[in-house]
Design a protein that fits this description.
The chain has helices at residues 32-43, 73-85, 107-113, 119-136, 138-141, 147-152, 156-167, 173-180, 211-216, 244-257; strands at residues 2-5, 17-22, 47-52, 90-95, 193-198, 220-225, 234-235, 242-243. The protein is of the alpha/beta class and 267 residues long.
Length: 267
């Protein structure tokens, strides 16, 4: 696993607050939304580090696995490592697409939803990236997945059924989706958490957003908006664009981890 530290964070011996950033599918710890979040956190004096999921840093993972939506082992390991290295720091986390911001809460519903309309453009681009990694490691992974079928896949379901599920110990794509979807866990969240999601997110139908569970959980603050797309939430005129989700996330984390209550960005 590769970690990318925001400027100076790795050399700060005793940061008061540290945030771990988790990127989305086929992104990296240097995706645009990640860099914007680091900048926003720095304004509050909060250090940040981004975890690159396996194979997403620019170097292929050497183990007989990649990553998937329900994989929490690597994140748990990194959090424990950060706690050991920075025992006095207040620790927070933010995730994009695979966690907290623009989450595909119901993976099966999301996979079906993305087989229609303009969402297919996202699918095509992301599948090409995933298939390049499968092709590059076909010799090592061929015994654990159906490589030819994965390379022919035209939908997330087809790829997950041929590659993601068998590679990571699931019976099939349906089993993977059932075990890895995050919606059933919303009611059980016990750590103060901010959820941000848009009704027009192409990765998930609006009806699959767990509004009732989020509203019933006292530690969750949710912002479910009509517009924002997938990890979009752009605000302001074209010549002075702002990124509302990143600003809102940084403000929320600053309020939880720091001693000052930050001014929150407007919608």
């Amino acid at each position: 696993m590769d970690l990318d530290w925001a400027d100076g964070a790795h050399s700060t011996p005793r940061p008061a607050a540290l945030v771990l950033l988790l990127h989305g599918l086929e992104g990296s710890a240097q995706s645009g939304y990640a860099l914007e979040t680091y900048r926003r956190l720095a304004r509050y004096g909060i250090s940040a580090v981004g975890l690159n999921f396996r194979s997403c840093s620019g170097s292929l993972n050497r183990g007989a696995r990649l990553y998937h939506s329900g994989d929490t082992d690597d994140t748990r390991f990194v959090i424990r490592t950060l706690r050991a290295r920075f025992p006095d720091a207040a620790l927070g986390a933010v995730g994009f697409s695979l966690a907290a911001v623009s989450v595909p809460y119901d993976l099966a519903a999301g996979a079906r939803h993305m087989e229609r309309g303009l969402a297919r453009l996202y699918v095509r681009r992301l599948l090409r990236s995933l298939q390049r990694k499968v092709r590059a490691r076909a010799r090592e992974l061929g015994s654990r997945m159906d490589v030819p079928r994965a390379l022919r896949a035209r939908t997330f379901y087809e790829f997950d059924d041929a590659a993601t599920a068998p590679l990571h110990g699931f019976r099939d794509a349906d089993d993977y989706y059932a075990q890895s979807s995050s919606a059933p866990w919303v009611a059980r969240v016990g750590v103060p958490t901010l959820l941000v999601h848009a009704d027009d997110d192409p990765f998930l139908p609006a009806g699959a957003i767990p509004r009732a569970a989020a509203a019933a959980n006292p530690v969750i603050r949710s912002h479910f908006t009509a517009r924002g797309g997938h990890v979009g939430f752009v605000m302001g005129p074209p010549w002075r664009r702002g990124y509302w989700a990143e600003a809102r996330v940084a403000a929320f984390l600053a309020g939880r981890l720091a001693t000052v209550e930050p001014a929150l960005p407007g919608a």
